[in-house]
Amino acid sequence: MSHKSSIIWLQGLTCNGNSHSFLNYAHMPSFAASFEMLYHPLWCGAEDFMSLLNSDVTFDFLILEGALSHDERLIQRFNLPFYEILDTLAVRAKHIICAGSCASFGGVFRLRNPEKITGALFSGKEKGGYWLEKNNVINISGCPIHPRWLVETLLALHNGEKVLLDEFLRPKEVFSYLAHHGCLRNEYFEWKVDSKQLGEREGCLFYEHGCLGPMSHANCNKILWNDVSSKTRAGSPCLGCTEFDFPRRALYETQKNMSLPQTPFGISKRAYYTLAGVAKSFKIERLEKKLIDEDN
Amino acid sequence: MKITKEIIQRIEGEATLELEWEEEQVRFAKIKFFNYRGIEEILKKRPLLDALALTPRVCGICSHSHAIASVLAIEDCFKSAGESLHVNQKAKDIREIALNAEKIHNHIKWYFFTILPELKRVSDPKYSGNAFKEKQWFQAQSAIMDSLKMGAHFTGQWPHGSFVMAGGVTCDPLRSDLVSAHGCLDAVIAFCEEHFYGMSLEEFLSFDSALQVMSAPSALSYGIDEMLKHGFDRLGRSFDRFLALGESFMYEGSLKSTKTTVLGADVKYVHESLDHTFFADKNNGYTYSKSAMYKKSYYEVGPLARLMVAKEPLMRDFHRRFKDAALTRVVARAVECAHLLWRTKALLNSVDLKEASLIPPKKEIHSLSGEGMGVIEAPRGTLIHHVVVHQGIIESYDIITPTVWNLGNGDKQNPSTAQKALIGLNSFTKADFVLKSFDVCSVCTTQ
Lengths: 296, 447
What we know:
The complex is a heterodimer. By secondary structure, chain A is of the alpha/beta class.
């Protein structure tokens, strides 16, 4: 039997959503064949946590879930200030994986006190979070993470492969894609056909309903959630939950400047507005109709 | 008098249980929750619809429940401002399917990932758990995934799906989505029949006697045997008072019961107490958990409460034998899961796809002022969202979660439901299990 990599899963300020999303991993026996969970707050008593903490055992992965803080009034675990636990474990971990936007950037809970509640290496988009610097941290942002993002990153590292990272330390294989890629409403986006109202299969949610798909890095619409769907496939706008500024304000409204929406990621205003103007000048009859015509 | 403090592990979040002992018996218990996150504060001054995106982040295990409570509160705001929204039956059915998927998954997860290993731990403190190891754990994990996948056909994703909006739901599923969802549900039913109940769902649902449940070898009958062995058929009893304020297919309206007498209830009698919290007293408080009461009394909420007010025959028989003991509470989740599977199958067959998914409000949301309340039955019990909005901006948002009902902190004269259940126990191990019989979610509690 090949060597198993060991994992300790630690929670800061969290809703547990990343733990529960991880449990949706479709090939869990295969995960268990390569990894040993030394500790997970919800399911494992494999090792008594305190004896693990007080030992000098080194381990392969420290997975962090939730926003972090040095302030013991904001987080404690096991009747200890959280920083004592995190600092003790962090030096003994080969890799530190931030599971979710809270551990990566501070996320939702950072909003309560952005000075004191942060991600591991970032506070929003600013460098310098719980730590100023650390060279073994990978961010897997998302609220929550997709189980495949986490497990496939762990497996790559377990197999000794190099994981390419973007400027926010996110694996490029996942975060070079945009949530827009693979969206079923792409054609409506191309021809600038708005969704008249929510609850319908037709129309793009980018123009009026706040969809952040074209500027949010994630392969949601490539690999799908729970194997079958995604926010946009369920008719809801992408909330941009993988980005450093999640959650933005007014998530169901498109922020406009002179009645123009923000441009998609990496597309210049000139290019986008020129093309959008041309596309909008045509009325494509097929796209104005219902997707499934029930009359004939 | 001796006082012990123990961390309660392997629950949603973390809690500290402080027990006062006298003559080897628990005299009083304090249940402490830390790690407050402040979602109610974060929502203040944000646009109203942001609540639909942010309140699911209260809790990773009941995010759909929060989304639904939130949309009901928003729809109620429209009503208070003079516009009663019509929500089509289709949208109501889809909301219920989503909620049921979450409840079904929760009950299976809790029974196989918490109750079974915790029972083994009561016998053998060195037992290291079943997670990522035992075959049955993997089978249960697969059933949990199927349940959530069933729901994701409508909600886009779990956890933290977005699928509700004032006036309906955002998804517009096809016939083929229903067929696929049905396939997922059938896989969950097959797991439950083979492993959970040891018999067909139909047979299990026809029972009205505890003895019938014990007749087939199954994870459930094994758990009941273990609980009987350790005396949990007598331990963990509380006030025998139940409350279910949210709607359910199993009963009409909002109800409460004292023992087996069921009466109508009204959410207007709900009262929130900040006693013993850090919010009320920074120095002498000891928890971030508020307490919820009904007419100044503590009530138990959750699956047992729902089945008791619904006069469900099988649970009534368990209750007749064991009252509201830890065993009864545990079995209630298994029994409710069976009803939910059956109900969801019927919903998948009956949902009318021809109706509109959503009828948008006429009133502009930016000019909406008023207040609204959303009340639902979440996996662990009654969940209440209350919002005050002014010109489309949230003035205040108040959330009462199920755990706040069950695991509040009263005092010696008026203990909360869980405190009452703990008083008189003679070991920490038993106290730990009795506390867990409430399906503790400290995450929800310290939102």
